[in-house]
Structures are given as structure tokens and as C-alpha cells.
Amino acid sequence: MLEVAITHDFGSFTLDAQFCAPPGVTVLFGRSGSGKTSLVHAVAGLLGPDQGRIAVEDWVLLDTRHSIALKPHRRRLGYIFQEGRLFPHLSVGQNLRYGAWFAPKDAPREDMGRIVDLLGLGALLDRRPGALSGGEKQRVAIGRALLSAPRLILADEPLAALDDARKAEILPYLERLRDEVKIPILYVSHSAAEVARLATTVIAIEAGRVIAQGPAAEVLGDPAVLPLGAREAGALITARVVGHHDDGLTELDATGIPLFLPKLVQAPGTVLRVRIAAHDVILSRNRPEGLSALNILPGVVRDLRTGAGPGAIVSVDTPAGRVLARITRRSAGALGLVPGVAVHAIVKSVSVAPGDVGAGSGLLA
Amino acid sequence: MTDWLGPEEWRAVALSLRVSFWATLFSLPMGILVAYALARWSFPGKQLVNGLVHLPLILPPVVTGYLLLLGFGTRGPIGGVLADWGIVLAFRWTGAALAAAIMAFPLMVRAIRLSIEAVDPRLEQAAATLGAAPFWVFVTVTLPMALPGIVAGTILAFAKAMGEFGATITFVSNIPGETRTIPSAIYAFLQVPGGEGSAMALVIVSVVVAMGALVLSEILARRVAARVGGA
């Protein structure tokens, strides 16, 4: 468990944030310039905040009241930078071993061979970073951070510099990391899709402050977090693969509700997390008949949120979890949607992109 | 070979090599330290240090030599202390090495400083987050990545030391076998009738050494750069 409570005055804006990061992936989620990277820099020791305390369990990294501020190299963190920052004069293998040279001899270490396998680096060990693709570089950077025997991993938008294909290449590795490596990961992102796939815990940051924190499904289903990206709003539900059908659809079971998604590769029995974007959800007061959409989730309106525009975000509690729907204010009025009203949330199968489906155990943990 | 270069000429060549070798060897750690400080640190008096390092490049060499004589002569403030420990520099080959080192220092520092400035500080930051203390960051990241500039600076300094004349002759005079380096020997040969042949032989040696140093530095810098940035 990482505990952070810091304030720092940058002149133009003030960082004032308290949060806890339990085991798993904790995503710091917010717009560019909201202070996410500054928070990570403070944890890494690259920024010395005016006041505050940062501790991993009973190990204090910073405590301004007791004049404790460990230097970055004494903090035992694995920092995965946005641009990789591999050492160009060292081979991939030497890059991977770099952190281990400096780790205390008695520190619990990840096995080099296991990490190399986990990240698929076996064929790259003798190459130099200059000869790697962007995605390969980032995998090496992840491995290098893991092998430094860290007590905490920091990842500052590790995928932001990559194109979608490279992102899709790395995300599964990060999911395996979350599920197989028992080191807490603090992960900065402004991508809702990334958050949905990876996060165990979400800390939503705006203008240097924490506006929401908690389990991923709870925070992502919280309309208060929406100002961060109404267009990207979406809820997270977990579902188990039931089987694959001949017509190209995969049937899932979301706590008793059948869901049909375009064919997935996961085997029956696998637990997945599925991100359902708010703009792909339609609401109906009555259970619809004769509708082409296959996925119908009965539920109860929990909350309705309107802004200055014509849109509204409705959060609906269903047996499968909370779902968000982005509809017009006019429809909300016409349907008489107020908290407590029973509705049906309808999701078109084809609207769920493969990128919105990820390995799920982290969410249940 | 021997009739091409007489014993006296050989002695001058050998002495020049010895003087330049030690001058370069001793100034290298200092040069790296000063270059690093100028490239990476901010401290009061930084411009003063920068100015002092570059002074020998701008001052007339005779002035530098005379200042060395004042400071490092046996009755000078530094030379006096050294003399008490049995180290005498004035009118010795070691003094010639000191003069050569000081004259070559700005060239060395300049080349190394540029290459250290070219090392991405974000890589040094990454090394720190991986547990490397500042000294180890320097040894494992900064130094190897700045190696092309260090090699170039070293060879340039060596070549400059081989050619140093004004400060050397002022500080340690022109004593055959002790302080008569190639430039001093050329000067001496040109002062006596019939010395042009010997002078010309040494001129050729000088040109060959200078050209060799340039070519070598180019090859080494390229090879090192390929290894550092390399595919």
C-alpha cells in the first residue's frame, strides 16, 4: 500500500492531493496538466514537494515534518518513462540488469528469465536499443523497471508515445504484469480505454486535486469523474466467457445477464472486463421487443447528470454492475428519468471494440 | 633511419612524447571533472572558472609561461611548497609537462564539455530511479556516453602538448635532454648555421604526429560513437 499526501505550490497552480494505492494497478487519471506527472515525480523523488508525506507500508520516502526526503536512487522504485529512456550504449540484456546491480543484495528479486519470458524479450537480449521498434523499447523499459527489485512501479503514460497497434501489443503484457507480479503499480494515464483495461483502483485528478478515488468500476461509473472526458465516458463490467457461437459472436455471462460480443479469443470460463462506452448505450423504460441490439441490461437509474450542453449522463445500476448512458436532456425528460426509475440499458454488440475487452482478474481482486 | 634523425633529434622526439603523454594523462581526470562541473552544475564563480580554464588559449604563451615561473618557480608560492617535498618543476621536463598540460587544458575541457552537455539528462534521471547513486550514474551513463568527446579532447590535447613552445621555453628554458622538446629543438637548430636539415626532419615529425593524431581521433570518435549510439 502506497500512501501519498502532498501539497506543492507551482505558482500557476497548486498540487494538493491525498490518496492511497492498494496492491494492483492504481491509475492516476486526468487531463494533461492536471498534475498527474507531478505526483509521480514527487513519489519518485524527482520533485520535492513543499509539504507532505509519502510512504510504502512502513517505509517512509518523504516526510517534510521530520525532514525526511530520500534521494531518488534510495527509493527503490521502478519508473517506466513515457519515452522508454533506455541506455543506448548498453545492450538490451545490460539495460535489463542495470537496476539489479544497484539493488540491495537481500532484496526480493524477480527472476530475469521469467520477466524476459513474460515480456517476450528473449530474442532481443543482445541487441542495442537503437535497433528496437517503439513497442519493443517500451517492453524493455518495463522489464528494466521490474528487474531493479522495486517496491513500487511507477508508469508515466508508458503507452502515450506509441501508435494504436503498438499499444495493443503492450497492453496484454501490462495486464499479465498486474496479475502475475505482486508489486503495486502507480500508472498515469489520460486514456479512458487504458484505465478501463488496467486499473484496479482509479484516482481521478483535476487541477491538482483528487476528485474521486476507489475501485475502478466504482470511479469510472461515477458521473462526478465525467468532466475529465464526457466523450470517453464509459463504465466497466466484468463478465465470464460462456462460449463461442458459429455466427461470430461470443456469449458472456455478466452476473446472470447474457451479453453477446464480436468473437473474442479468450477460452470459455475466462473472466473478462468489458468497457461499455456511454455513447453506445440506449435507455428504454420498457423491455424492448423486436430490437436488433442483443444486449439488454435491466436496472435502476442511480443518478442523472446534465451539463451546459444538450447531453446528459445517466448512471444505471444493473445486476452486472453500473453502466453509463449518454443521452440527450430531451430524452431524459421525455422518459421521466429520475433516480429510482426502472430502465433497460441496451448495448449494440458490435460497438464493443476488442480494445475495450481485457483480462479481468485485476478488477475482481 | 639514424642518419635521417640524429641522436639529438631523437632525444627531442622522445622527450616530446614523454612530456605530452604525462601532461595528457594527468590533465584528463581534472579535465573531465571541470568539464562536468561546467556542463552540469551551477555554482557561484562558474564564469570565473570558465574564464580561468580558457585563459591560456587567449593569453600570449610567454605570459602563461612567465606566470608559471612566478607560481611554480622554486621561490614561487606553489613551487616553494613543492620544492620542500622534493618536487622541482622549473627547468625540468616535469615543468615542461605542466606547461603543456595547462596550454592544452582549454581544448580538452571544451571537447569534453560539449559531449557531456549532449548526454540527455533524462537518461541520468532514469539511472537514478533505477538505484544508481550520482557517482555511479556518472560512471555508467554520463562517462560512456560522452566517450567520443573525451577521446577527441584527449587526442587534441596530446597534439597541442606536442607543439607547445612559448610557455614551455619561458618556464623551463631549452635544455637539451631535459626540456628541449621538438618545437624548442627546431627553434634551436634554426639559430645555428647548418641546422636547417635537422630542423626540417623535426618539422616532418611534427606534421606526421599532428596528422596522425587528427586521423586517429576521427577514427576512434567514429568507432566509439557507433558503439554508444549504435544499432
How is the topology of this model organized?
The complex is a heterodimer of chains A (365) and B (231).
Chain A: E1 2-9, E2 14-21, E3 25-29, H1 36-44, E4 51-56, E5 59-63, E6 68-69, E7 77-80, H2 92-102, H3 112-118, H4 134-146, E8 152-156, H5 164-180, E9 185-189, H6 192-198, E10 201-206, E11 209-215, H7 216-220, E12 234-244, E13 249-254, E14 257-262, E15 271-277, E16 281-284, E17 295-306, E18 311-318, E19 321-328, H8 329-335, E20 342-347, E21 357-359, H9 361-364
Parallel strand pairs in A: 3-9, 3-10, 7-8, 8-9
Antiparallel strand pairs in A: 1-2, 1-4, 4-5, 5-6, 10-11, 12-13, 12-15, 13-14, 15-21, 16-20, 17-18, 17-20, 18-19
Helix pairs in contact in A: 2-4, 4-5
Chain B: H1 7-40, H2 46-58, H3 61-72, H4 77-84, H5 93-117, H6 121-129, H7 134-145, H8 147-163, H9 166-172, H10 182-191, H11 196-229
Helix pairs in contact in B: 1-5, 1-8, 2-5, 3-9, 5-8, 5-9, 6-7, 8-11, 10-11
What this model shows, in words?
The complex is a heterodimer of chains A (365) and B (231). Chain A is of the alpha+beta class and 365 residues long. Chain A folds into 2 domains: 2-220, P-loop containing nucleotide triphosphate hydrolases (Rossmann fold); 234-364, RNA polymerase II/Efflux pump adaptor protein, barrel-sandwich hybrid domain (OB fold (Dihydrolipoamide Acetyltransferase, E2P)), CATH 2.40.50.100. Chain A has helices at residues 36-44, 92-102, 112-118, 134-146, 164-180, 192-198, 216-220, 329-335, 361-364; strands spanning 2-9, 14-21, 25-29, 51-56, 59-63, 68-69, 77-80, 152-156, 185-189, 201-206, 209-215, 234-244, 249-254, 257-262, 271-277, 281-284, 295-306, 311-318, 321-328, 342-347, 357-359. Chain A has a 6-stranded mixed beta sheet, with helices on both faces. In chain A, helix 2 (92-102) runs parallel beside helix 4. Chain A starts with a strand and ends with a helix. Chain B is globular, with a radius of gyration of 20 Å. Chain B has 11 helices and no strands. Chain B has a single domain, classed as MetI-like (MetI-like fold, Orthogonal Bundle), CATH 1.10.3720.10. Chain B is 78% helix and 0% strand. Chain B is an all-alpha fold and 231 residues long. Chain B has helices at 7-40, 46-58, 61-72, 77-84, 93-117, 121-129, 134-145, 147-163, 166-172, 182-191, 196-229. Chain A binds chain B through residues 44-46, 71-79, 81, 83, 85, 87-89, 98-99, 101-103, 128, 130-131, 144-145, 148, 154, and chain B through 120, 122-123, 125-134, 136-137, 140-141, 144-145, 227-231.
